[in-house]
Amino acid sequence: MKKVYAYPKSLKRAPFHYCPGCGHSIVHRLVCEVIDEMNLQDKTIGIPPPGCSVFAYNYFDVDMAESAHGRGAAVATGAKRAFPDAIVFTYQGDGDLAAIGTAETIHAANRGEQITTIFVNNAVYGMTGGQMAPTTLVGQKTTTTPYGRDESLDGAPIKMSEILALVKGTVYIERVAVNSPDNIRKAKKAIRKAFQTQIYKLGFSMVEILSPCPTNWKMSPIESWQWVDREMTKVFPLGVIKDTTEKKDAD
Amino acid sequence: MTGNSAIAEAAIRAGCQCYFGYPITPQNELTEYMAANLSRRKGCSFIQAESEISAINMVYGASVVGARAMTSSSSPGISLKQEGISYLAACELPAVIVNMSRGGPGLGSIVAAQSDYFQSTRGGGHGDYRTIVLAPSSVQELADLTHKAFDLSDKYKIPTLILGDGILGQMMEPVEFHYEAPAELLVRPDGLRGAKGRPSKIIKTFTSDPAQLEELNWSLFRRYELIKKQETACETFMVDDAKLIVVAFGIAARIARGAIKTVRAEGLKVGLMRPITLWPYPSEKIQELAKGVKQYLVFELNMGQMIEDVQLSLAGQGEVSFYGRPGGVIPTPSEVARVISRLYYQKGLK
Ligand SMILES: Cc1ncc(C[n+]2csc(CCOP(=O)(O)OP(=O)(O)O)c2C)c(N)n1
Questions:
Q1: Does the pTM of the predicted model rise above 0.95?
Q2: Which of A49, A213, B136, B340 could form a disulfide with B141 if both were Cys (CB 3.0 to 4.6 A apart)?
């Protein structure tokens, strides 16, 4: 009988600490599946952030080194420059990448660092209890925007993928979501391509993943998956944002 | 060769593989030397980072994979690196950090000062940790201590600071290098190089278990005790018959040495104690000196920071006076000589 579904080798058999309906665990699994399929487990170094995914190293069965909040791209840069044979990826939330770590991210991308960034956009600061993120939608209620995000005071949600697409060193950027089986399949394909971009040494690659956070959005898991489609994708449209890999396709 | 270039050359010869820095006066020659020379070496990497924060985190990344890595800056930039240094300390990762310190607080000035003593010797960032702090006082010593900094840092898995200042960094002196750069890149065996033939490894500091974090702190401090025992270093000058000892480090010690020669010519029995490691502090040496000498003058280019370590070391066994010039004002040896001789007479030592 053909095996069609199995536990990824590079995913440790530890129960996830994530809330029910949270996208992080799905993203973890997808990254691990890609690492397995591309046979990268023994050369990958992952850089997890402070954030809900701070314990990512308890799940990824690859070498991992924790980063300070927002500094993932700089840490990954140092690791990759010192050890170019490694496959280095950062795993970052939207507070981590789009607020405190903006400078590190833009400049690592601009230098065309050969690293891959998995950017989990859940429109809030999850770990610290649901405060406004740079990606919070206008009108969205969070603990620090109790009356809804006010564009005139807080600005509009920042679109890091589009910003990074303007930077020459970025080669592949795609925005995906993990709120439906179809989207999850596409997300995996994008993650695979991002790692392939690094293997081919083409430059900086990033996959932005719209990821539900039912706990902090104060929704049921199903409502939160619907909210990704209905609200988030209006501001953060899915699809390839930039691809200059010149048809060196991942597969 | 300038002090800044000497550090850079010594670092390359010590096998420094990665240098990441951000421009700030008075240490730019160091970054520029690395740009010209390190970047050309096989397997080595130089990046002009987008900020000091990025630079120290790049150093962290390079250290994670087992490479010898270094960054340099001056006071305001060193403040920005503190979070990163705290992470390095917590993760027990080696790294060499150079502070060619300048006058503060704030943007301050670009002239030499020693006002970062507290920041350097008390950890500097958040959390309970120390870094080894080396305080050279000549260009030759800058070179020698740079090499030593890499070795100590690797040996004890602790970030190591070289605390210089704008004068040391920019002055020109002849320097001899005692080492050739290694032919092969030095890779620490405990670096993360991928989980090939071994289980995957984690480098982290965060824990939800206070007992675990307490154990980390205990183990760090056990290592610190060992470093205190084995690596404390200082130099003394004309202390054997001294009635008054000047305690000064770095460039201030050089000025003090000149002043001591002047007052010695006038028949005053004055000596110098110069800590070479600011952490660990040579307290035992001071306690030993205090058996014979009761009068101390601490001279610093700040408002009085190292004086606290001298007082702690003496624990009441001697009397401590202070002469300090903050903000980048550098007194001449003759000014310091006047301060010494006034104190000498005031204390009835003549
Ligand atoms: C310097 C610093 N500032 C603040 C924090 C607190 N903090 C931890 S995670 C985080 C943001 C988490 O949000 P995000 O990056 O969106 O990730 P999520 O938890 O939503 O996955 C913050 C502010 C910190 N650890 N370090």
A1: yes
A2: B136
